[in-house]
Amino acid sequence: MQRLFSAIFLLYAAIIFITLMFVALPFVLIFSAILPIDTGKRFILTILRTWAWLFSLFSFFWVATKNKVHINRSKSHIYVGNHGSYLDAIAVCLSIPQYFSALGKVEMTKVPVFGLIYKRIVVLIDRSSKESREKSVAILKKDIANGQSILIFAEGTMNQTEKPLADFYDGAFRIAIETQTPIIPFVMINNRKLLPRKNVLNARPGLITTIFLPEISVKNLSLEDLPTLKKKIYDLMEEAILKNSMVSTI
Length: 250
Description:
Glycerol-3-phosphate (1)-acyltransferase
């Protein structure tokens, strides 16, 4: 009975998702065609926030945000979060209060409809290509230099392990040190429970809670400090996930 309910609910949520995507797509295509890249991305992000809010409302995948007080909106940050569910895109759109550029896998551009929007808002990376990795880093650094924040899921892909976090890549921390940009770690709680990556038929409605942790300064750090910085943030995020993992769901 539980699996039947999950299947019906998942179908309902998918219909809501696809319908809203088709509504958003024309606006995304128009803005990306007629506006400069940076301005267009800002408008598209606004559209996606509206899309995310409507999807969250009607699908019953609700999002709450804690500790925005840690964010100084007048300066750029590198947001580093955990990645465990397809719902993470909804949560970050609703929770991060600044305009930002997100690093995303090129494979997601193949998803029908969603891919057309995705490739117009994220900085694409093909991790199998050194040239692609270098190009994406250069774009993210340029965005930071222009006063914009960026978002990187340090695990590089959805966490499919039994651990709270998969191992981190170096990229976010290298960029932070090289640009001297502070890091804001954040964790999303319940995302893996509500829509599991390994078994989407266990989907169920509920509350995702995004929790921002205090800003981490990288002032005067060098690349020699990268392993220590990465471990520090990994430990802080792991502790936050474990501490808050009992957040209730509907």
